[in-house]
Amino acid sequence: MKALNGKVAIVTGASSGIGRATAQLFAEEGAKVVVSARRQDELDRLVSDIVVAGGTATALACDAKDEGCAAALVELATGEFGGLDIAFNNAGTLGEMGPVADISLADWRSVLETNLTSAFLGAKYQMQAMAEREGGSLIFTSTFVGYAVGVPGLAAYAASKAGLIGLTQVLAVEGGVSGIRVNAILPGGTDTPMGQSFANTPETRAFVEGLHALKRMATPEEIARSVLYLASDAASFTTGSALVVDGGVSINRA
């Protein structure tokens, strides 16, 4: 029995990395998947890969910072597949890196809008659709940065991702009466295009790997399996949690 048979899921930030791996895994586990990102070509390739593998998917290229995008994704899920059960709000950016004194206000706002406001907008429409199905699972991608470890140069990223944990807790309380579970996943360093843009030299990669008790970075597929747990009925009594999947960053001191 597949874990998500009969479910309908939205995945944002699906063009690469954790989002792409999760969309593929959701489809493998029986979900009908609506994938979104800004890059149409990458989305087309993802949908093709899912369909060739025997899954069901459709795509909408749009900007997660746009409220119209959030509404349109829910309309697509309900119009094409009949409803919405799962939403993985994964769209995110590192933004401009550097000391706080050197970060522009425009970039600060852009990072918060991409990482935090987009999640709020997604939830605003997704939870209404889930309530009509008398339940669902809403998942955000947070991070260990700003939660267990302060990383110099990532103030906007850390602040926006930490904000997702607070949003998760409030939405879990608001959605509980409707059977909607809301959780955040906190990955460690992951070998994605975003992760590689930070760990972009052998020295930096060694530093990032050394933060982890496992002394390596995660693969996107490893993180996707934890997202699947939160999306599935296996996590039926899990809500309001910040699920740490960080390879031991939060406990490593060596």
Characterise the protein shown here.
The chain has a single domain (8-245), classed as Rossmann fold (3-Layer(aba) Sandwich). The chain is built from eight helices and seven strands. It is 46% helix and 15% strand. Helix 1 links the parallel strand 1 (8-12) and strand 2. It starts with 7 loop residues before the first strand and ends in a 9-residue tail after the last strand.
Low-confidence stretches are none
User: What does the largest sheet look like?
Assistant: 7 strands, parallel
**Strand arrangement in the largest pleated sheet:** 3-2-1-4-5-6-7
Structural class from helices and strands? alpha/beta
Total domain units: 1
Number of helices: 8
Q: Identify the CATH homologous superfamily.
A: NAD(P)-binding Rossmann-like Domain
Strand coverage percent: 15-25%
> What is the C-alpha radius of gyration, as a whole number of Å?
17 Å
Compute the average pLDDT: 95
**Ends distance:** 42 Å
Specify the helix fraction band: 40-55%
Task: List how many beta strands DSSP finds.
Answer: 7
Shape: globular
Please write the string of helix (H) and strand (E) elements: EHEHEHEHEHEHHHE
Here the CATH topology equals: Rossmann fold
Question: CATH top level?
Answer: Alpha Beta
CATH architecture: 3-Layer(aba) Sandwich
